[in-house]
Structure formats: structure tokens, C-alpha cells
Amino acid sequence: xxxxxxxxxxxxxxxxxxxxxxxxxxxxxxxxxxxxxxxxxxxxxxxxxxxxxxxxxxxxxxxxxxxxxxxxxxxxxxxxxxxxxxxxxxxxxxxxxxxxxxxxxxxxxxxxxxxxxxxxxxxxxxxxxxxxxxxxxxxxxxxxxxxxxxxxxxxxxxxxxxxxxxxxxxxxxxxxxxxxxxxxxxxxxxxxxxxxxxxxxxxxxxxxxxxxxxxxxxxxxxxxxxxxxxxxxxxxxxxxxxxxxxxxxxxxxxxxxxxxxxxxxxxxxxxxxxxxx
Length: 277
Description:
The protein is of the alpha+beta class. The chain has one domain (4-207): 2-Layer Sandwich (Arylamine N-acetyltransferase fold). It has helices at 4-10, 21-34, 40-43, 52-61, 68-81, 190-202, 207-210, 246-257, 263-268, and strands at 37-38, 85-93, 103-112, 115-119, 131-132, 138-140, 146-152, 156-162, 178-183, 213-218, 221-226, 229-234, 237-242. α4 (52-61) packs across α5 (68-81).
């Protein structure tokens, strides 16, 4: 049984949202503001389980974060508990891609009345508002970034973003609308999600096997910690800092992202040459 009250408390949403577009937007926004995106368990060799019980235990009970396969499982379970009709989709992330990327991202397709919407509770690169699945549809995020949905001849649909790169995880380059991820509307089964999750969390080529990544949506921006580099954009304010001390890194994890690691866990991430001071 999904504990909806515990989930709503985790994302600091005092009232149960209605199963409409406004409720969907409020739910996704609260989720993104409360639960960080992170892959630290991949780096620590703990593996990533995406069944409902494991995801709830980690992201809600233990108050950790996760990456898209974890976030989306939790979000889909919450949507079902609230009476929404929703199913997962898989996507190819085009940020910094040279060749056609694999299916390493998942998000939700939500049907409200006769309109389908995309809702993304776990895209670590930036905050994406909910959008109607309509060619040419646009939306603006609270950080000022604009998003557009286009048809794509090869990949079905393409989500594009035009906004300040400071409100991203640092992979956003170029001016104007830039491709974020592409997707089709084909049925996605649990086995498909498991396969993509295993590649994302274990393949040597996966970005999540190569870097320690944490990000958190802010009311008007994004805070990110990739390897030892901390970036934050809040409104018009930008900050970049290199974490040179493991104690500072550990404090930043706790204070900004709500991730409480021991000194031993920080050391096990392999970012610093010596023990924490």
C-alpha cells in the first residue's frame, strides 16, 4: 500500500491535489523542490532498485534522493494514489550528446480528460514544467526558461529548452531552443524500465558511472554538485565553488540537498585524497 500521507509530508504539500492539470503541476513542483536528484549509490556500488517498496523506503522514509528511474516510480505511485491516469515513457537525453543516446531517462505521460500531459519528476538537468502533449506547445518554468514540444522525424517527440545555463547541471550549451530529450509514446513495461535502469547504473559508458551528481530544484533556479564543483543559480544570483575539503562537501550535501552522509561515506565517493578533517 502506498502511504500517500507520508509522501505528501515528504514533499511538504499540505493538501491532496485534485486530479487535474493544476493538481498535477503542484504535485510535480513540490516533488522537485523537496527530493534531490542524485546518483551517489551508483558510485558507492549499492545498486539501484526501482520497485515501489525500495524506492519509497529510500526517497521517502530515508529522505534520500535518486535519479529518474527512482523518482518516476515514486511519482507514478503517487499519481495512482491520487486518482490520476498515468504511465511511464522512456527518453533519449540529448544534452552534450555526440551520437544517438540510449534510453536512459523516464518520465510520466498523464491523461486528464481528453488531453495528455508530460510530467517529469526526475530530470536532473533542469526543471521542466508539465506540458500538454501538443505539437508546438510551450511553457515557462519559474526560473524563466522556456520549453517547447516539437515533432521529430526520427525520434517521435523532442523537448527543447531556451534558458539561462546557470539553471541547468552545466551541460546546456548554445543559444535559443536546445534539445533536451526525445521520446515516443510506445508502451513501456516494467521490464523495459529494469533494462534501462541496469544500463544506466552499471554500464561503464553511463554518465552515472563516471561522475558524482547531485542537484536540487530551487524556487527560481537550480543547485548542483557535480564531482567537487558546486553551482547555484537563484533568481539572478550565480555562484560557483570548488569543494576542496571533504568536510565542506559533506556539509553542502546536508545543508543544500538534505543528504546526510557519514565521513566514511564521503570518503568512499573517492573525491578527496585524504580522510575528512
